[in-house]
């Protein structure tokens, strides 16, 4: 059996003396979309940040493409073809759309700049229309598109997406999830998605995990988890956002 692209084993992360992740095991295989759902404060974003080395895992191992990255500096992890679109979109607000995208391309020394610009503009035509506009003046949805596009400019093998639908209108959420599905289907991009919008995330994902208070409590295919009564009761009742 082939090794997972990303393998997390027994990871514990602390903030000071408070334990945020209590021994997490999780895999992302090549070409998969894997989602992690859970309530606010469950530890989902902490896991995403721990993969990138900030905060560091106090115990356990994070192995990416056969290399243990759990002690590596963040900038070195970024050069290993892992890209992150963090929670809250964190684009550079004073820079133009173009300059934000150049920041993404800088990770691999602008090797395929023109080709990659075309690729992200095909995916998000709105960004092309806003190419000289400052990031901070874009709508929330456009900022989210820019955050994902900037991550894609580094040509990742693994894309980490933290709450891409947060605070966005349903139409924009659909557009962003469709773009993720397209990238996975056409390019085989592996995606690890942290989402509170469980319905959309599980419909999109090949496999999913449920996190409660820093512990993985359930896992299965996206379809299986969508059908589990306890998942429906906790995360899906009262509308499908």
UniProtKB/TrEMBL annotation:
Domain of life: Bacteria
CDD domains: ABC_TM1139_LivF_branched
GO molecular-function terms, A-Z: ATP binding; ATP hydrolysis activity; branched-chain amino acid transmembrane transporter activity
Record carries keyword Mitochondrion: no
Segments forming domain ABC transporter: 6-238
Alphabetized PROSITE patterns for the sequence: ABC_TRANSPORTER_1 (PS00211), ABC_TRANSPORTER_2 (PS50893)
Keywords, alphabetical: Amino-acid transport, ATP-binding, Nucleotide-binding, Transport
Keyword Ion transport: no
BP terms from Gene Ontology: L-amino acid transport
InterPro entries named among the record's database cross-references: AAA+_ATPase (IPR003593), ABC_branched_ATPase_LivF/BraG (IPR030660), ABC_transporter-like_ATP-bd (IPR003439), ABC_transporter-like_CS (IPR017871), BCAA_Transport_ATP-bd_LivF (IPR052156), P-loop_NTPase (IPR027417)
Name of the protein: ABC transporter ATP-binding protein
Organism for this UniProt entry: Prosthecodimorpha hirschii
Family listed: Belongs to the ABC transporter superfamily.
Pfam (any one): ABC_tran
Signal peptide location: none
């Amino acid at each position: 059996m082939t090794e997972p692209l990303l393998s997390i084993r027994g990871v514990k992360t602390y903030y000071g003396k408070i334990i945020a992740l209590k021994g997490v095991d999780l895999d992302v295989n090549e070409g998969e979309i894997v989602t992690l759902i859970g309530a606010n404060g469950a530890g989902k974003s902490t896991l995403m940040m721990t993969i990138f080395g900030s905060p560091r895992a106090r115990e356990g191992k994070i192995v990416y493409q056969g290399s243990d990255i759990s002690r590596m500096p963040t900038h070195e992890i970024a050069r290993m073809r892992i890209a992150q679109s963090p929670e809250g979109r964190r684009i550079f607000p004073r820079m133009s759309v173009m300059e934000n995208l150049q920041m993404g391309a800088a990770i691999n020394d602008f090797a395929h700049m023109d080709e990659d610009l075309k690729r992200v503009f095909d995916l998000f035509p709105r960004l092309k229309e806003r190419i000289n506009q400052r990031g901070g003046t874009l709508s929330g949805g456009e900022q989210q598109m820019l955050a994902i596009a900037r991550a894609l400019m580094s040509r990742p093998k693994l894309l980490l997406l933290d709450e891409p639908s947060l605070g966005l209108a349903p139409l924009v959420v659909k557009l962003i999830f469709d773009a993720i599905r397209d990238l996975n289907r056409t390019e085989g991009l592996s995606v690890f998605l942290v989402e509170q919008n469980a319905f959309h995330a599980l419909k999109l994902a090949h496999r999913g995990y449920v996190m409660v208070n820093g512990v993985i409590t359930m896992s299965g295919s996206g379809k299986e988890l969508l059908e589990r009564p306890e998942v429906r009761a906790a995360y899906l009742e009262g509308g499908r956002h």
